[in-house]
């Protein structure tokens, strides 16, 4: 593998994609994971141990929740991400243990500060549509690299795709680089699925054109 992909997802779209009502999902972008571009399930014998990240749990629950299942400690989701992706990138010194992996991802999340960046750019959840090219260009103007934006394709009764995921890519030295350029692996370029939702339709790279950035559902009282 050649690069790392820092994946953020938008909770209201996660819920829609999983066909799950997800009571009161977060109204901010949360972490999906940090992935190598061409590797998964690298070391099946290296099992997840919640005790190793015990001191990270307050931040993990805030920034890396299991949006779909909302289990008390989200450990099922984190276990999936570690065993599928963490054990692959652990060959890098900066990510060479479970503790380092999760700590570094939290650091990257705060460093990228995607939520604040989108707010400053005036890109907010709205009933009006955004042009995908405008979002990519706006993010590139801040980060200096081209991100990848993934959408849920429109369903039969819809006329527009729904923004679900934003990815920013890094070199193995954790320097930002373009996500989209010739040679990007087709498997990740075309599809991405939420963890353990094998029967889902999945996300696709957003098509050029309009997209819906859905506001969070109003909390029912």
TrEMBL record:
It catalyses: a guanylyl-uridine-RNA = a 3'-end 2',3'-cyclophospho-GMP-RNA + a 5'-end dephospho-uridine-RNA; an adenylyl-uridine-RNA = a 3'-end 2',3'-cyclophospho-AMP-RNA + a 5'-end dephospho-uridine-RNA. Its main location: endoplasmic reticulum. GO terms for cellular component: endoplasmic reticulum lumen; extracellular space; lysosomal lumen. It holds the Pfam family Ribonuclease_T2. It comes from the Eukaryota. GO terms for biological process: RNA catabolic process. The active site is at residues 32, 81, 85. This is Ribonuclease T2. The lineage of its organism: Eukaryota, Metazoa, Chordata, Craniata, Vertebrata.
């Amino acid at each position: 593998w050649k690069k790392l992909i820092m994946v953020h997802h938008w909770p209201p779209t996660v819920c829609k994609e999983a066909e799950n009502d997800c009571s009161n999902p977060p109204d901010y972008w949360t972490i999906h994971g940090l992935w190598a571009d061409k590797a998964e399930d690298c070391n099946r014998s290296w099992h997840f141990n919640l005790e190793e990240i015990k001191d990270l749990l307050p931040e993990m629950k805030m920034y890396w929740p299991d949006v779909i299942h909302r289990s008390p400690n989200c450990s099922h989701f984190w276990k999936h991400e570690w065993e599928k992706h963490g054990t692959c990138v652990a060959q890098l010194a900066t990510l060479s243990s479970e503790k380092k992996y999760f700590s570094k991802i939290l650091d990257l999340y705060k460093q990228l500060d995607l939520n604040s960046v989108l707010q400053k750019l005036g890109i907010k959840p709205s009933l009006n549509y955004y042009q995908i090219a405008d979002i990519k260009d706006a993010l590139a103007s801040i980060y200096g690299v081209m991100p990848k934006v993934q959408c849920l394709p429109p369903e039969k009764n819809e006329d527009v795709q729904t923004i679900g995921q934003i990815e920013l890519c890094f070199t193995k030295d954790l320097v930002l680089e373009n996500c989209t350029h010739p040679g990007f692996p087709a498997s990740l370029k075309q599809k991405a699925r939420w963890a353990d939702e094998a029967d889902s339709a999945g996300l696709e790279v957003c098509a050029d054109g309009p997209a819906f950035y859905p506001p969070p559902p109003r909390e029912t009282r």
